[in-house]
Design goal:
The strands form three sheets. A five-stranded antiparallel beta sheet has the order 4-5-6-7-10, sandwiched between helices. It has a four-stranded mixed beta sheet with strand order 11-8-9-12, with no helix packed on it. A three-stranded antiparallel beta sheet has the order 1-2-3. By secondary structure, the protein is an alpha+beta fold. It has helices at about 5-15, 50-55, 55-105, 120-185, 190-195, 235-255, 260-275; strands at about 20-25, 30-40, 40-50, 215-220, 225-230, 285-295, 300-305, 310, 315-320, 340, 345-350, 365. Helix content is about 45%, strand content about 20%.
């Protein structure tokens, strides 16, 4: 006989009843059920054991079968989900591609319809949108053609008006250019100035084609007259005024035989007031009238606002000018008669209009 001493026998002898897994006397893991037993005051142990591997063989087999079945079911679910999702997403992808083509302007793309699910509803909506966009683009093209026709019509009208304006402008410019030639014939010619005033220069830069500024000269007996004036107005109005002013100057000297520059200005002022200032107009001119007497070699002048300038030995001297215009003004006193004591190497400048910045150097007023 072999002594059986295991955890189960020891626990049972202590009065414990239980079912446990432990190693038996062979060192093999067993499933053991034990319980103490008293017979005729003798302590016995009832013990039943089976190898753990044998006891749980069917359980392990069931567990493995469950795991295998679960794995197969999981693979089946994955495969089914994959194919179902492909079946669901395929029309969505196709519809997405069609929508992209539609967004790129391809209105001829064929959008499949007829499905009875949500994708079919979405496809029907895209189909309607495709039709609406096509109609809208057609309307816009029609409007564009209409606008192009109107633009062409308006352009033709504008070109026609432009041609009319250019023709009128050409006529006006031609008239002004002819007026310039007329004005140029009235101004003092270079030949006449060279003959009577050998050492001189003329700086004449009108702002417009014709100008209210003018320089005029005439010879009466032994007296040479030179006028540089600025008439009221610019351009064509100023040119008309210059013609009128020149005619009055010429009238005073050649017809009225007035000799002194101040008396000539007085006469011109009277004529201007009488002829063009009847209704309160203040047209006239500012300027300087210089008289050179070749017999006495005397230089006299009269000036309205503009001061004659004499440069000698590097010094700039400004001579007296009456502060009133040749025309209606605050004052209507007689213009003053002034002499210029010129000597050799004296340079005299007379002008109709002169920018003030030219003479900002130190000067002396006489």
């Amino acid at each position: 006989m072999q002594e059986v001493k295991t955890q189960g026998t020891e626990e049972a002898l202590k009065g414990v009843s239980d079912t446990r897994i432990f190693e038996d006397y062979r060192g093999v893991s067993v499933l053991s059920a034990f319980k103490p037993l008293d017979i005729l005051n003798m302590h016995w142990v009832i013990l039943s054991e089976i190898d753990e591997a044998e006891a749980f063989a069917e359980v392990n087999t069931l567990r493995n079968n469950i795991i295998t079945a679960f794995a197969i079911l999981l693979l089946f679910v994955f495969a089914t989900s994959y194919f179902v999702s492909r079946e669901i997403t395929r029309p969505l992808k196709e519809l997405t591609i069609d929508a992209q083509e539609l967004g790129n302007g391809n209105l001829d793309i064929e959008i499949p319809t007829g499905r009875k699910d949500e994708i079919g509803t979405l496809a029907d909506s895209f189909k309607k949108m495709q039709g609406s966009i096509g109609k809208l683009i057609g309307d816009l093209r029609q409007m564009n053609h209409t606008l192009e026709d109107k633009v062409e019509e308006r352009t033709a009208e504008v070109v026609k008006q432009k041609n009319v304006i250019e023709e009128k402008q050409k006529e006006i410019v031609d008239s002004i250019m002819y007026a310039k030639r007329i004005q140029a014939t009235i101004l003092a010619s270079e030949t006449f100035l060279n003959k009577n005033l050998p050492e001189h220069f003329v700086y004449f830069k009108p702002k417009d084609i014709v100008s209210g500024d003018f320089y005029w000269a005439t010879l009466k007996d032994n007296r040479f007259y030179l006028a540089t004036c600025d008439s009221t107005g610019h351009g064509v109005p100023g040119a008309f005024m210059s013609l009128l002013n020149i005619s009055f100057l010429n009238e005073a000297i050649t017809q009225k035989n007035i000799e002194q520059p101040n008396e000539i200005f007085n006469h011109v002022r009277k004529r201007l007031i009488k002829n063009i200032s009847k209704e309160g107009g203040k047209d006239g001119m500012d300027g300087i009238l210089l008289c050179i007497d070749s017999k006495t070699n005397q230089y006299t002048y009269s000036a309205a606002h503009n001061k004659p300038i004499v440069i000698s030995n590097g010094a700039i001297n400004e001579y007296h000018a009456d502060k009133m215009p040749i025309g209606i003004g605050v004052r209507e006193d007689d213009f003053s008669h002034n002499a210029l004591p010129l000597k050799r190497r004296h340079y005299i400048y007379v002008y109709g209009w002169l920018c003030g910045s030219i003479w900002r150097t130190k000067r002396k007023e006489i």
